[in-house]
Design goal:
Layout (H helix, E strand, L loop, with lengths): L20 E13 L2 E3 L2 E12 L12 E13 L7 E12 L6 E12 L21 E9 L4 E10 L7 E9 L3
Antiparallel strand pairs: 1-3, 1-9, 2-3, 3-4, 4-5, 5-6, 6-7, 7-8, 8-9
Amino acid sequence: MKLFASSILAFLLSIGPSLAWAESSLFSGFELFTGIKLNGVTIGATFSGWTDSGMREIWVPFSQSTGGFVSGSINYTGSPGFHRSVTIVGGQWSWLEADNHTVHSGPVLSGKVKWPPNAQTDVGAVFGVDCGDGVATFIANVRDASTGTSGTISGCLDDQLTFPPKIWGDVNLPSVP
Protein backbone atom coordinates (compact mmCIF):
# COMPACT_ATOMS: atom_id res chain seq x y z
CA MET A 1 0.00 0.00 0.00
CA LYS A 2 1.11 3.48 -0.66
CA LEU A 3 0.55 4.44 2.84
CA PHE A 4 2.14 7.37 4.16
CA ALA A 5 4.58 5.58 2.09
CA SER A 6 6.51 8.56 1.69
CA SER A 7 5.37 8.57 5.09
CA ILE A 8 4.61 11.47 7.02
CA LEU A 9 5.54 10.88 8.68
CA ALA A 10 9.67 11.39 8.94
CA PHE A 11 11.82 14.34 9.72
CA LEU A 12 15.41 15.18 10.55
CA LEU A 13 16.52 18.70 10.12
CA SER A 14 19.64 20.38 11.23
CA ILE A 15 19.16 23.21 13.69
CA GLY A 16 21.45 25.63 15.41
CA PRO A 17 23.50 24.33 18.33
CA SER A 18 21.92 26.81 20.74
CA LEU A 19 18.49 25.24 20.35
CA ALA A 20 17.36 22.49 22.68
CA TRP A 21 14.67 19.96 21.85
CA ALA A 22 12.00 21.28 24.17
CA GLU A 23 8.72 20.13 22.72
CA SER A 24 8.02 16.54 21.90
CA SER A 25 4.96 14.38 21.58
CA LEU A 26 4.46 10.70 20.90
CA PHE A 27 1.57 9.89 18.57
CA SER A 28 -0.34 6.97 17.03
CA GLY A 29 -2.76 7.01 14.12
CA PHE A 30 -3.83 5.78 10.70
CA GLU A 31 -3.21 6.47 7.04
CA LEU A 32 -6.45 7.98 5.77
CA PHE A 33 -5.65 8.46 2.08
CA THR A 34 -2.89 6.95 -0.07
CA GLY A 35 -2.60 9.99 -2.34
CA ILE A 36 -2.85 10.49 -6.10
CA LYS A 37 0.06 9.92 -8.48
CA LEU A 38 0.66 12.77 -10.92
CA ASN A 39 3.74 13.14 -13.15
CA GLY A 40 5.74 10.67 -11.06
CA VAL A 41 4.90 12.27 -7.69
CA THR A 42 2.33 10.90 -5.24
CA ILE A 43 0.45 13.88 -3.84
CA GLY A 44 -1.59 14.07 -0.66
CA ALA A 45 -0.85 10.83 1.22
CA THR A 46 -2.66 11.72 4.44
CA PHE A 47 -2.19 10.53 8.02
CA SER A 48 -3.92 11.50 11.19
CA GLY A 49 -3.71 10.48 14.84
CA TRP A 50 -3.69 11.30 18.50
CA THR A 51 -0.97 12.08 20.99
CA ASP A 52 -0.31 9.38 23.54
CA SER A 53 1.86 8.59 26.49
CA GLY A 54 2.94 5.21 25.14
CA MET A 55 6.34 3.98 24.10
CA ARG A 56 7.88 5.07 20.81
CA GLU A 57 8.13 1.66 19.16
CA ILE A 58 4.50 0.62 19.65
CA TRP A 59 1.15 1.74 18.29
CA VAL A 60 -1.15 2.97 21.09
CA PRO A 61 -4.98 2.68 20.92
CA PHE A 62 -7.05 5.87 20.68
CA SER A 63 -8.50 5.14 24.11
CA GLN A 64 -5.08 6.05 25.56
CA SER A 65 -4.98 9.49 23.94
CA THR A 66 -3.62 12.39 25.97
CA GLY A 67 -5.92 14.78 24.09
CA GLY A 68 -3.61 16.10 21.38
CA PHE A 69 -3.93 15.62 17.63
CA VAL A 70 -1.31 15.15 14.88
CA SER A 71 -1.94 15.16 11.13
CA GLY A 72 0.01 15.37 7.92
CA SER A 73 -0.30 15.21 4.19
CA ILE A 74 2.82 14.41 2.23
CA ASN A 75 4.04 14.26 -1.34
CA TYR A 76 6.67 11.72 -2.35
CA THR A 77 8.56 10.10 -5.19
CA GLY A 78 9.21 6.38 -5.51
CA SER A 79 7.11 3.30 -4.88
CA PRO A 80 6.26 2.11 -1.38
CA GLY A 81 6.53 -1.54 -0.39
CA PHE A 82 8.87 -4.21 0.85
CA HIS A 83 12.51 -3.75 -0.17
CA ARG A 84 11.86 -0.17 -1.31
CA SER A 85 12.08 3.39 -0.11
CA VAL A 86 10.44 6.68 -1.04
CA THR A 87 11.61 10.26 -0.79
CA ILE A 88 9.34 12.87 0.79
CA VAL A 89 9.37 16.03 -1.34
CA GLY A 90 6.81 18.23 0.41
CA GLY A 91 3.50 18.49 2.20
CA GLN A 92 1.84 20.02 5.26
CA TRP A 93 1.64 18.95 8.92
CA SER A 94 0.00 20.09 12.17
CA TRP A 95 0.09 19.26 15.87
CA LEU A 96 -2.49 20.44 18.37
CA GLU A 97 -0.96 19.92 21.79
CA ALA A 98 -2.96 18.20 24.54
CA ASP A 99 -3.70 21.59 26.13
CA ASN A 100 -6.04 22.27 23.14
CA HIS A 101 -4.52 25.75 22.77
CA THR A 102 -1.01 25.33 21.39
CA VAL A 103 -0.91 24.64 17.67
CA HIS A 104 2.17 23.91 15.56
CA SER A 105 1.90 23.61 11.79
CA GLY A 106 3.73 24.28 8.58
CA PRO A 107 5.37 22.69 5.58
CA VAL A 108 6.90 19.23 5.36
CA LEU A 109 10.30 19.98 3.85
CA SER A 110 11.82 16.60 3.04
CA GLY A 111 12.26 13.08 4.35
CA LYS A 112 12.51 9.38 3.66
CA VAL A 113 10.57 6.17 4.28
CA LYS A 114 12.37 2.79 4.23
CA TRP A 115 10.70 -0.63 4.19
CA PRO A 116 12.35 -3.91 5.20
CA PRO A 117 12.97 -6.59 2.54
CA ASN A 118 9.98 -8.69 3.68
CA ALA A 119 7.42 -9.27 6.44
CA GLN A 120 9.86 -11.34 8.52
CA THR A 121 12.66 -8.76 8.62
CA ASP A 122 13.25 -5.80 10.90
CA VAL A 123 14.90 -2.80 9.22
CA GLY A 124 16.66 -2.10 12.50
CA ALA A 125 17.29 1.27 14.08
CA VAL A 126 16.94 3.43 10.97
CA PHE A 127 16.24 7.17 11.51
CA GLY A 128 16.53 6.59 15.26
CA VAL A 129 13.65 4.13 15.65
CA ASP A 130 13.29 0.36 15.49
CA CYS A 131 9.79 -0.59 14.32
CA GLY A 132 9.80 -4.38 14.23
CA ASP A 133 9.37 -7.05 11.57
CA GLY A 134 7.75 -5.93 8.32
CA VAL A 135 7.30 -2.30 9.39
CA ALA A 136 8.71 0.75 7.57
CA THR A 137 10.71 3.48 9.32
CA PHE A 138 10.35 7.15 8.40
CA ILE A 139 11.73 10.57 9.12
CA ALA A 140 10.40 13.89 7.86
CA ASN A 141 11.84 17.37 8.24
CA VAL A 142 9.23 19.97 9.14
CA ARG A 143 9.07 23.70 9.76
CA ASP A 144 6.84 25.25 12.44
CA ALA A 145 5.40 28.31 10.69
CA SER A 146 4.46 30.02 13.98
CA THR A 147 8.00 29.99 15.38
CA GLY A 148 10.12 29.64 12.23
CA THR A 149 11.97 26.69 13.74
CA SER A 150 12.54 23.31 12.12
CA GLY A 151 12.13 19.88 13.65
CA THR A 152 11.37 16.29 12.80
CA ILE A 153 8.60 13.75 12.80
CA SER A 154 9.94 10.22 12.88
CA GLY A 155 8.54 6.80 13.52
CA CYS A 156 6.99 3.68 12.09
CA LEU A 157 4.56 2.92 9.28
CA ASP A 158 2.82 -0.46 9.17
CA ASP A 159 1.16 -0.34 5.76
CA GLN A 160 2.06 -3.75 4.35
CA LEU A 161 0.76 -6.04 7.11
CA THR A 162 -2.35 -4.31 8.54
CA PHE A 163 -5.45 -2.55 7.32
CA PRO A 164 -6.04 0.21 7.87
CA PRO A 165 -2.38 1.14 7.84
CA LYS A 166 -1.04 2.27 11.21
CA ILE A 167 1.51 4.99 11.90
CA TRP A 168 3.22 5.94 15.17
CA GLY A 169 6.18 8.01 16.20
CA ASP A 170 7.40 11.24 17.72
CA VAL A 171 7.10 14.93 16.84
CA ASN A 172 10.20 16.87 17.94
CA LEU A 173 10.45 20.65 17.82
CA PRO A 174 13.19 22.86 19.26
CA SER A 175 12.45 25.52 21.81
CA VAL A 176 12.34 29.05 20.55
CA PRO A 177 15.56 30.85 21.55
